[in-house]
Amino acid sequence: MATLRTILLAAGALLAAPAAAQAPAWPTQSPRLIVPYPAGGNADAIGRLVANRIGPGLGQSVVVENRAGAGGTIGAQAVARAPGDGSMFLLAPVAILAITPHLRKVPYDPEADLVPVAMLSSSYGLMAARRDLPASSLQEFIALARKDPGKYTFGSAGAATATHITGEIVHLKAGIRLLHVPYKGSAEALTDLVASRIDLIYDPVALGQARSGNVKVLAVTSSVRHPELPNVPTLREAGIEVPAGSWFGVFAPRGTAPAVVARLAAEIEKAVTAADAREQMLKFSQYPDFKGPQAFARQVQDDRAFFKDLIERAGIKAD
C-alpha cells in the first residue's frame, strides 16, 4: 500500500512539474515603485505612466511611492536595502547611478546594490529661462551672464542630479558663472522659475510651461531638436558640446531573482513600445528608449565611466 502511495505521489509530482515550470515568475504581493523625487516632476510622471501600464500584465496593481530628498539618494537607499523579493523597485534617472556617486558619498553601492531591469526613456532636456529674462537666445544669455558673473541663478532637482551637472557643464564650456539653487525636485524648481525667483533650469519638466508661454526655452540639451519646439536649437548647434540628454530606468534590489527581473523587463517593454507611448511621453518631454537588463547594464556601466572622467576633468563639485 505504501509502495502504491509513493508511486501515486511521484506521478502527481511529475504531472505538476510542467505547470510549475510554466507559471509566471512573479511574487504574490503588489510591488511598490519608488520614485525618489516629489510628485509633479518628470520622474513622477514617467513612473506613474509605466506603473499603470504594467499592472494589468502582472496581474497586480503597482503602487507608486514618492520618497524624495538628498538628490534622489533617500529613495535609492530604500530600494538598495530592501529584500530582493520583488516587493520594491526603483525608478531612477542617470544621475543616481552614474553621476551622484562620483560627487559625494551615497548610502548605497551603485554597482552592487541595484540591479538594472530596464531603461524606459530618454529626455529632450530643455534650457528654460524665466519669461522676463532680458535674453531670448542662448547667445544673448551668455553675453548677459559674462557681464555679471554670479548674478544669475539656475535651479535643479537637487545637488549632483543630471539637472545640476548639465548646467555646470554648459556654464563651464560657455565661460560663464551662475549661482546654483538646489531643490528637492524638478517641480519646485519649475515653480520658482515661473515665479521669476530663479533665472534658468536645465530640465525637460519645463515643457508644459513653455507651451503656455510662462517660460522661454533657449536651447535643448538632446542631440536632436524637440519635435514641439522645432525653432529652438540644440546646445550642440549653438556650439556647446554636452552629454545628449539623460534616461530613466528601473532597478531592483540585489538578490532579486533573474526570472523576476526578466518578467518585469518584458512588461516594461510592452508598456513603452505601445503605439501611443511616444505621444504620451512627449507630454513631459521624454521619448521611449527601451533596453533590456543586459543592454541597460552596459549603458549604466558606460555612463558611470563617462561621467566619472568628465567630472574629474572639469573639476565639478557638489554643492
Q: What is the strand arrangement across the widest sheet?
A: 2-1-3-10-4-11
Q: What order do the SSEs take from the amino end to the carboxyl end, as H and E?
A: HEHEHEHHEEHEHEHEHEEHHEH
| CATH level-4 homologous superfamily of the largest domain | Bordetella uptake gene, domain 1
**What is the name of the CATH topology of the largest domain?**
D-Maltodextrin-Binding Protein, domain 2
Q: How many domains make up the 3D coordinates?
A: 2
DSSP strand (E) fraction?
A: 15-25%
Derived from helix and strand composition plus strand pairing, the structural class reads alpha/beta
Average residue pLDDT: 89
Main sheet overview:
6 strands, mixed
Uncertain runs are 4-24
Number of helical stretches of at least 4 residues: 12
Describe this structure in words.
There is one protein chain. This protein is 42% helix and 18% strand. The protein has 319 residues and is of the alpha/beta class. It folds into two domains: 32-122 and 245-314, 3-Layer(aba) Sandwich (D-Maltodextrin-Binding Protein, domain 2); 126-220, Periplasmic binding protein-like II (D-Maltodextrin-Binding Protein, domain 2). Helix 2 crosses helix 10. It is globular and about 60 Å long. The model is unreliable at 4-24 (pLDDT under 50).
